[in-house]
Structures are given as structure tokens and as C-alpha cells.
Amino acid sequence: MSALLLSMLCNFLAMALLALEQDRHWRRVMSDAPRQRRSNRRLAVVILLVGLAFCVTDESRGFAVLYFAMGTGFAALVVAMCLSFCPAALRSIAKWSGGCRAPATAGSALSASAQGDLTDSNPIGRPAAATIPRSCISPKSRESANGKL
Amino acid sequence: MSGDFRRSMTTVHSWAGVMFGSLLMVVFWMGSLSVFDREIDRWMMSDIEAPALNHDSLSQNVSLDSVLRPHIDELLAAGARQWGSSLPDERTPYFRFFYQRADGVFVSEKIDPHRGLPIGNEGRTGNETLGASGFFFPFHFRLNLNWKGLGHNLVGAAAMAMLLLLVSGVVVHRKIIAEFFLFRTDKSFQRNNLDLHNLSSVLALPFHFLITLSGLIVFMSIYVPDIGRLVYTDKSDAWGAFYAEAADTFRRPPSGRTGGLASLDAMRAKAEAHWRDEVGFIRLRHAGDANAVVEMGRQVGGELSWNIDKVYFDAGSGERLYATDIKPMMQLQRFFVGLHFAQFDHWPLRFLYFGSGLLSCVMIATGFFFWLATRRRRHERQAVAGFTAVEAVTVASTTGLLLATLGYLVSNRIYALTEVPTPRALFETGGFYAIWLLSLLHALGRPLAVACRQQLAAIVMAGLAAPLLHFLGGGSASTPGIGAEQTGVAGVNLGLLGIALMAWWARGRMSSAVRCEAQMPGVGA
Description:
The structure holds 2 protein chains of 2 kinds.
Chain A: H1 2-20, H2 23-30, H3 41-58, H4 61-85, H5 91-98, H6 106-115, H7 139-145
Chain B: H1 3-34, H2 37-44, H3 64-67, H4 69-77, E1 82-86, E2 95-100, E3 106-111, H5 136-142, H6 150-172, H7 189-203, H8 205-218, H9 220-223, H10 226-231, H11 238-246, H12 264-275, E4 279-285, E5 293-298, E6 310-314, E7 320-323, H13 328-341, H14 347-382, H15 387-397, H16 399-417, H17 424-444, H18 448-472, H19 484-519
Antiparallel strand pairs in B: 1-2, 1-4, 2-3, 4-5, 5-6, 6-7
Helix pairs in contact in B: 1-5, 1-6, 1-14, 1-15, 2-19, 6-8, 7-14, 8-13, 14-15, 15-16, 15-17, 16-17, 16-18, 17-18, 18-19
């Protein structure tokens, strides 16, 4: 069972690294515009393989592969929820993977928000983001826009 | 990829989703519940004097000759043609027994492994509940519609539509990698819906695909009935011939002479020595005849594949007649069956199955709500007939289905606490269908957002009421067993509270979306 837990942790770490490869998620976690940094994709793949190895040592091949495949999806879901509701939870992984960064300035966070989240594709024809009433945007988003994160 | 192809796939995705979304929601919701059907069974049987799970009630410690034999002898004296039973295990601490009466009718019972007596009918007529394994599980694959295989075929059509939806969805979704982890809670409700739809679709895509495909493979003889006839042209029972060959089954005709029954324990010991694994199922064919055959099946919890390994014994002498040698084609089919049923002894995997099933439900529901919201204004302007009905059906198949499920469980508890004269199974299923119908009528009379919020409020109340009624009905006191049994029942209570919590959160989110809609049309719900 402990090997399965370790496998799940590996999956989570690998998925977090892959998520932080995307500038949008990096900004959300670190409140900072991404700079040049090394790619962690290979490291994430290696960690995923280590997770698979943990599964195989603890289970028969059939259960191990199924658990690993489903566990990877679950870990990705947890990472996505962390990014949405508690991005600070991934900050230590971001720091470890990309080195320490300077805290965000009000301008950089606001510009990041404006460049990234608020200008995404708009398939449903909603009004421009700037005209959305403040009450319809969550407090977390408002804090981000004010550079308080 | 050409724009035309993507547009055509968008049309396919929309229409397949609208036509089969409700059906798929029912199938996936019931399937998710079926992962923990035995635990829900125990929760629903809490007021019945059920056997406690202890060391003696596990199958390897139960003597078939001393516990089952007296009951079997009674049935044989009454003219039963055949009987069978799965043996007790940690999740089901009783024999799940069935027999065929002399008039051909099949009867199922739960047998106490300590006393050898049927449980559930003591002190009150019609007290036996269908539970989850007798209601949710068959609902999952045949909608409890048995007329001319209608339920099976509807679910099969929905499964085909699901495969189509998955393929077309992958084509339609332009940014699978870029939006792999994306769920923006700080955007409009409509954008939340789409993000959640994409997230739940992509992260569990292998699950969605495999569970749907394996579901079709499980019922291959129903969905492609002519394949057997094409291969076995000279056989009147083509599928019977196929299974006899591929599953290597053993049959012999009755002799017409009277025969006895040797020691079942001795036969079980021989079968377990043959496999070096436990027996999970036992069956007697041609009961009372000199050619009667005892069939012992290997337990299925230890591996991913759902094995159908069997050893056959002569019932009169107890001598081994035959041991199956499953053909590779059938082994492949059994692998998919095992993958679909998820009845293995692997708790983490079972939780992952349950979670993935719920993600499928989220995917279907959010897809439905997104489609409705993007078309509401246009359809209202154009006065498209039937749009209100589609909205009502959507509400009934999402929040209404949850409410009906909780209604089924609450009915079970109300029955336990009161003196309702109707049979328990009828009372519970009546509660389920009545609440489901009411949810549809409720949704027909008001806007979608209002109906959803009101039904979510009802879900919160029902989700809190069910564990409370379980507690009041002596739920915790009547389950003295320790370990998996109590953990399972406590898990069901926690799950119910979790449903109430999620419904409360979703209601709050919808309320704020409606406020936004009032302030700025097009942003909110």
C-alpha cells in the first residue's frame, strides 16, 4: 500500500511539473511573469516512470498498469484543482523546479492576468472581460488583479 | 484538420449529446454507485438482523455441509431443479443463494453463514430490500426495462453514442494540451461549465473509452446476436455452442434416475487444490438426478480478469469430472468483463473507478448545461418548440436523478422506522420513481436555473436526512462486525454527507451566477 501511495505522489509531482511548464499556470502559482528556465518535461517523464515502478513492485502487472493509468488522471485532476482553488500549494514545487523568483509586483500580476486569463478564446460570445461587474469575479481573482498575491 | 470536418464533428457531438445525454447520465451514475453496491446493500440492511462479519463467516471457514446442506435438502424435497450460491466474503458476509423451483421460477435469498437460514424476512412480511445490487446495478445496464430487451438495447445505443461523442469531442476540442489542467473558477458560470466539461473529459478519457467499450463487449451476445449464428450455422443454439466451446463448459443430460449429493466440503477442497485458490461460487444442475453435476467456480477478486474457471464434480460420488480450459478469445472477453465490473479486492482502484465514474457524470451534466445555455436566447427568440422540454429533461436527469437516488435510500430508512404495510422493495422503488417523476414535473414548470437550485436544495436536505435516519434506525448498533463492514457503512454515510456538501456548494455557485445574469445578461447562467 505504501508503494501505491508513493506512486500517487510521483504522479502528482510529475503532473505538477508538467502543469508548471505552461506559462499560464506558472503565473497563477508564482504571481510572476515566467522567465527563461529549464524544461522539466524529461524530469516529469522520469518521475512518472518511477511511479510506475512503485506500482509494479507492489501489485501484479494488470493491477499495476490500471492503477498507474487511473492514478495519473486522478493526480492531474488534483493538480488542476490546486491551480484553481489553492495555487499556493504548488509554489514549493514551482520553486524547486525553476529556482526562486522575485515576488510579483502589482503591475506584473495585473499584466499577466490581462495577457493570460482574461483574453482567452471566447466561444460563447460573452462581453469583454473589462466590462464584467466586479461582483461576478471571485475575490481571489480581484486580489490577483490588485497584485496582492 | 479541415474546418469543415471539425464543424461536422461539432454537429455530431451536439446532437449525440442532446439525444443520449440523459440516458448516459443514468447509466454512468448507476454504474458509479454499483462500484460500492455491496456497501450500500449493507447500509440498507442495517435494521435487518444481518450476520456479523467475523472470522467464522468468511467462506474458507464456513462448512457447506453443515450450513447450506439442511436448506438444500429442504429445497430438493420440494422439487427444486437447481440451486447455486456465491460464498461469503468480506464485502458480502452471507451466501447469495438462488434456486429454481419445480414450476421453473427462480428465487433468490441471502443465507446467514452462522445459522444457515434465509435473512431479511424475520418478523415482518416482505421485509427484504432490493438494495443497490438488486436495483442500481441492473438499472445500470438494462434500466430495469425487461420488455423485449428494450433496456439492454437502449443502453447499447447510448454506449455507441458515447464512443461517438468521445471521438468527436477529441476532434472538437481545439486545445487539449494547452487546456489540460485548466479550470478557471474566477470566470463566468458558463466558462466554468465549459472548463469543467473539458477537464473531466480529457483527464478521464481512457476511462470513459475503456468502460464504454468493455460495457459493449460484456453484452456482445445481445448487441451482435447474429455473429454466433453466422459461425455456428448448424446449431440451433448458436451462442450456447459458442460458450460451450470458448468457455469450455461441461454439460450432461439428466438420466431420469434418482441420485444423491456427496460432501460439498470435500468437492470444494479438491477444487481449491486444483487452482490453489479459493472457491467463490457453487452450483448444482439436475438436482436430485443420478446425472446431477456440481459446478465449483474460482473466486474472482484476486485478479483483474473476471475468470470463469470451473471444476465439475459428479454430485452423487463427488468425483471430479472435468476442469475448464478457457480459450484465448474468451480470456480476452473475460479481461474486459473484469475491467468493467471492478469486483476485484483492490480498494484504491475501486475508489479510482468510483471517482472516474463521477467524473463521467460531471462531463455529461456540464456538457448538457453548456449546450442549453449557449442556445437558450436564440431558441427563445425563435420560439423553438420543445426547448423547455429538453431543459426539464436535463434537470430531471441530473439533479432529479440524484434526488431520486437519495429518495430511494430515504424510503428504505422510513420503511425501517415505520409500519408501512407495503412490501419493502415496492415502497423503495415506488419512492425512487415518484421522486424522479416529480422532479421532471417540477422542472417543467419553471426556468432551468430556478429548478436546478431548488432541487439542489432538496438534495442537500435529503443528503443530510439519510444518514440521520440511518442513525435513528439503529444503523450503527445493528452492525456489530468490525473492519470492512463498518467501514463500508460509515463510508456510505460519509458519501451522502459529501453529496449534500457538493450540492450546497453548487447551489451557491448557481445563485451567484444568476445574480450575475441579472446584472449582465450573457455572463451568468
